[in-house]
Amino acid sequence: MTDLFDMQDEIVARLANALNAQLTVFEARRAEQSPHPDSTDLLFQGLAWLNKGAAPENLARARGFFERALALDPGNIDALVWIAAADVVSGAALLSADRTARLASAEVAVVKALSLAPDHPIAHYCMGLVQNFTNRASEAIAEFERALALDRNNALAHGGMGFAKMALGRSEETEAHIEQALRLSPRDPIAYIWAAFAGMAKLQLGRYEEAAAWLRRSIEFNRNYSTAHLFLAASLAQRGKLDEARTVAAVGLTLDPTFTIHRFRGTASSDNPVYLTGRESAIEGMRKAGVPEG
């Protein structure tokens, strides 16, 4: 009977996540037509831009709407939380030269949000993201667990948990979390990031064919995500498919011309030795695929 209730709960969660995504699009379009948008209107417009993908322009536009929403209503906790999310994505996806500053700014925003709303599940998720990318994966797991305690069907927290396990050198556990996130929200706007996490974990484990499958899936979700192309190139190169790897790497570098191995090496999210050793496999593959050293 418990399994039946869990299944029903998951089905409801999937429907709710799908409806939330549609609602965001609808509300953002409606808000665009408003001559005097209020704080909630601006929040939806920001979410719509954030959902377009991890590109600098999208993140900048999203952040601008969230800031305007917060200016109109300083008590709009959601706007504060999503400002943090935009900064985390910008820093974590290597889309900003001031990565450290972006992550620090995100942490300030989310700490403030949690001081005002201690049981805000997305705020706990965002805190976990910040910790994920600042060498605090164990603390991140605690935040994701808190988010799931508040909302057991929080797909975002499962996705973040997958990365945290990888950062702790437990990449073999990542895939299960990503699969759960995708079950709960199969059409999530950041499904491409989750799939990339699974691909990175497989790459770290030396399972290059499985890595390539996940990274291709990430690209199917979002063809403009440069990170997925570059990790796919690494996995292909490690399998000896150098011509294809170089072609894929060229696409990734077109999407992010500033990417270099030196830059990537300097953005490790953990000092865990297993994680760092696995990361070298990605670096070696990128080098073979023609990614510049920098």
Instruction: Please compute the radius of gyration using only Cα atoms.
Output: 19 Å
Poorly predicted spans: 1-19
The total number of structural domains is: 2
- Compressed to H and E, one letter per element, the order equals HHHHHHHHHHHHHHH
Structural class by secondary-structure content: mainly alpha
CATH architecture of the largest domain: Alpha Horseshoe
What would you give as the CATH superfamily of the largest domain? Tetratricopeptide repeat domain
Helix content percent band = over 70%
CATH fold category name of the largest domain:
Serine Threonine Protein Phosphatase 5, Tetratricopeptide repeat
In DSSP terms (H or I, runs of 4 or more residues), the helix count works out at 15
Instruction: Estimate what percentage of residues fall within beta strands.
Output: under 5%
User: Span from first to last CA?
Assistant: 58 Å
Question: For the report, how would you describe the main beta sheet?
Answer: none
Mean pLDDT: 87
Number of strands: 0
CATH class of the largest domain: Mainly Alpha
Shape: globular
Summarize the structure.
The protein has 294 residues and is mostly helical. 75% of the residues lie in helices and 0% in strands.
Task: Please describe the topology of this protein.
Layout: H1 2-32, H2 39-50, H3 56-72, H4 77-92, H5 99-116, H6 121-132, H7 137-150, H8 155-167, H9 174-184, H10 191-204, H11 208-221, H12 226-238, H13 242-255, H14 261-265, H15 273-288
